[in-house]
Amino acid sequence: MALRPEYLLGHSAYNAFLFASVGEERSGLSLTVLTALTRLGFDPWHEAARLSDLPKEAAARAFGVAIAMLPEGNWKASEAEAIAARLVNLLPGRSAPAVPLVEAASITGRKMTPRFPTVLLWGVLAVALFFLGLHFLG
Fold first, then answer.
1. What is the DSSP string of 89-127?
2. Whole-model pTM?
3. How far is the C-alpha of 85 from the C-alpha of 19, rounded, in Å?
4. Which value, to the nearest 10 degrees, does the dihedral of the CA atoms of residues 112, 117, 123, 127 take?
5. What is the pLDDT along the chain (138 residues), one digit of tens a residue?
6. Strands (DSSP E) along 18-75, which ranges?
């Protein structure tokens, strides 16, 4: 059985960029672009797609600003733009497709329903089973 497209991120055109090292953190661990973007609150694949659609210089400036917002590791904030320029060169051309988004409704073929009633029902059932168990054990 083949994997659906949203699970094929191991074959993303952005892997060279996302798994490249920004530098070494103070703890001694390598900080990847993927981790850095996630820490900053960005969706890494969408940000990579956005940056790859920009001219290299503009992408390097934009990504340099993001790197400058990170706590310094073995790099200085003044080096952020040079690091960004090196990493942006790993992005594919503008024609790389973004990671496809698949909504749950399109997978199941039905509309999504609110989860609260379902959670409430299971909660009531769990409490009832708890008291039923106490009744038979006590």
1. TTS--TTPPPPPP--HHHHHSS----SHHHHHHHHHHHH
2. 0.61
3. 15
4. -150
5. 565 555 555 567 888 999 999 999 888 899 999 999 999 999 998 999 999 999 999 999 999 999 998 887 877 778 888 999 999 999 987 744 545 555 555 555 555 566 777 888 888 888 888 888 888 886
6. 21-24, 30-32
Alpha-carbon distances of 90 from 34, 41, 114, rounded to whole Å: 13, 21, 42
Alpha-carbon distance values, 22 to 31, 67, 136 (Å): 6, 8, 61
Give whole-number Cα distances, 93 to 11, 65, 73, 98, 113, in Å. Answer: 16, 21, 30, 12, 40
The amino acid sitting at 127 is V
- From CA 70, how far away is CA 31, in angstroms rounded? 10
Domain ranges for the chain: 5-88, 113-137
The pair of three-digit structure tokens given for residue 128, joined into one six-digit string: 């009832």
Q: What amino acid occupies position 137? A: L
